[in-house]
Description:
The protein is an alpha+beta fold.
Amino acid sequence: MNTTSIEIELVKGDSELEQILLLQKRNLLFTNDGFVTANHTLEMLHEFHQSMPSVVAKNHGNVIGYALSMPRAASELVPVLVPMFRRLDSLALLDSQRWYVMGQVCVDQAWRGCGVFDKLYAEHRHQFSDQFEWLVTEIDMRNPRSLNAHTRVGFVEIDHYHDSQVEWSVVGLDFSRPHLPE
């Protein structure tokens, strides 16, 4: 893969949102190679982007990865994520902090291992660290690829819990900590 042709930037329009949905659809199945759990609609993505744009990785104009930004105001837009937002609101560590949620991160299978994941988070830090102190998300414990990748870029576990079906690790990236090398 030619990684020099990768562009990392904020979402610019509907074409990129539609490509995000296609990539998401291809990764909804549970596999050992990573997976995503929430299924969004174009309308949901529009709502997210009205208040906070997401970050995409592109190769020759095609989305090969994304990292969805979800401000706290978007907590009711994805019903499956409402319990997560409630839990985050209850955490003492985040109580007096400015934080937002990584609604989902995904890299096309052909581009995994090429640094795209790390670059998506580096761009989040670049774009949003002046407005927020923490970027948080939760990861299904059955997804070791995601757990390892988040740890590699500097996320630390800030909570851990079981719901009726899944064991979750809640992780946060403290923007006040030094940026990790790319």
